[in-house]
Amino acid sequence: MQEHVTLPESPDPATLAALLATPGGARLSARTGTDTAGRPRVVLTVEHADPEVVAETRQRLMRACRERGVRAFVV
Questions:
Q1: CB neighbour list of residue 25: distance below 8 Å, 6 or more residues apart
Q2: For residues 19 and 57, what is the distance between their CA atoms, to the nearest angstrom?
Q3: What are the tens digits of pLDDT across the range 3-62?
Q4: DSSP 38
Q5: Cα R_g (the chain), whole angstroms
């Protein structure tokens, strides 16, 4: 199972590395691209076979984003 967290602005490399190191048990990965309006986006993928592990890691990731002042939303 996987969920996606979108960052509407690209964080600096150190912040992105810290977000990708968020504990919780799920695998975290990032990809960059643009949305349909042509704005740059970073999408973090939270992936694990157990949906509860995905949910726990996502919650921790969202908390880490808030603590670092990074805007994020789940898609």
A1: 48, 50, 53, 56, 57
A2: 11
A3: 999 999 999 999 999 999 999 999 999 999 888 888 889 999 999 999 999 999 999 999
A4: S
A5: 12
pTM of this structure:
0.92
Q: Are 46 and 3 a contacting pair, CB within 8 Å?
A: yes
CA angle 62, 66, 71 (to 5 degrees): 85
CA atoms within 13 A on the CB side of 6: 10
Quote the CA–CA distance of 55 and 62 in Å, as a whole number.
10
